[in-house]
Amino acid sequence: MMIEREFQPVQGESILVSAKKAIRLIGLALVLIPVGVGLTWLWGSDTTIPLINKQVTWWGALVGGVVGAAGILLPPIVFWQWLVRKERLVIGTEYLQVVISKGGTDFVKKQIAFKNIESATLQKHFEQTVIAIQLRVVDAPDLVPPGGDTLTKFKRHFGFHLYLEDSYQLPAEDLCRRIEKAAAVRGPR
Questions:
Q1: Of 152, 146, 150, which is closest to residue 3 (Cα–Cα)?
Q2: What is the 3-state secondary structure of 158-186?
Q3: Cβ–Cβ contacts within 10 Å for residue 23, how many?
């Protein structure tokens, strides 16, 4: 049985989700929609693909459907994260937190004590640059989400315990340096 733990947002430097990165994702969606619809239409109409004179297979139609659906779903998800959830990264005195808004109330989505951060590095995770975080203790009582087996398995499969996406206003390199510095200053003595 997992015990639900709630922590309060800490005071500190708040780094919001980047509007530029959100707009880039919406721009990507505007490209994905016509590509996906086009592939599906070409398959359904038995029309050949211009320039290469080949027909779209059922597999291409499936890829087109997924790509088109991703293009349609991406903008609402981005707007929801950026405008409604108002996700932000908070670098406090003792904790690194990801805080989101639900109905006007702030909730801590992720919390890591700086003393529990062994390292923070930039890595690729499913072709996306992320800040990969290694923990000292996966079952720390002030860790959100609760750790244990899940974080241990995640490290076994991906090489790190948890990560932060490169979606904030500061470049991932700068955030990584700040986290490493805070962990070194506030870490175990």
A1: 146
A2: HCCCEEEECCECCCHHHHHHHHHHHHHHH
A3: 12
DSSP bridge pairs for 112? 96
Distance CA 133, CA 18 (A): 21
User: Rounded to two decimals, what is the model's pTM?
Assistant: 0.74
CA distance 75 to 26: 5
Q: Which positions ≥6 away from 77 have C-beta within 8 Å?
A: none
Task: Report the distance separating Cα 24 and Cα 82, nearest Å.
Answer: 13
Q: Which H, E and C letters describe 14-73, residue by residue? A: EEEECHHHHHHHHHHHHHHHHHHHHHHHHHHCCCEECCCCEECCHHHHHHHHHHHHHHHH
- Burial class of 119 by CB neighbour count within 10 A (0 to 12, 13 to 18, 19+): middle
Per-residue confidence of the chain (189 residues) as pLDDT tens digits?
344 457 899 999 999 988 888 888 899 999 999 999 999 999 999 888 878 888 999 999 999 999 999 999 999 988 887 777 888 999 999 999 999 998 889 999 999 999 999 999 999 998 889 999 999 999 999 999 877 788 999 999 999 999 999 989 999 999 999 999 999 887 665
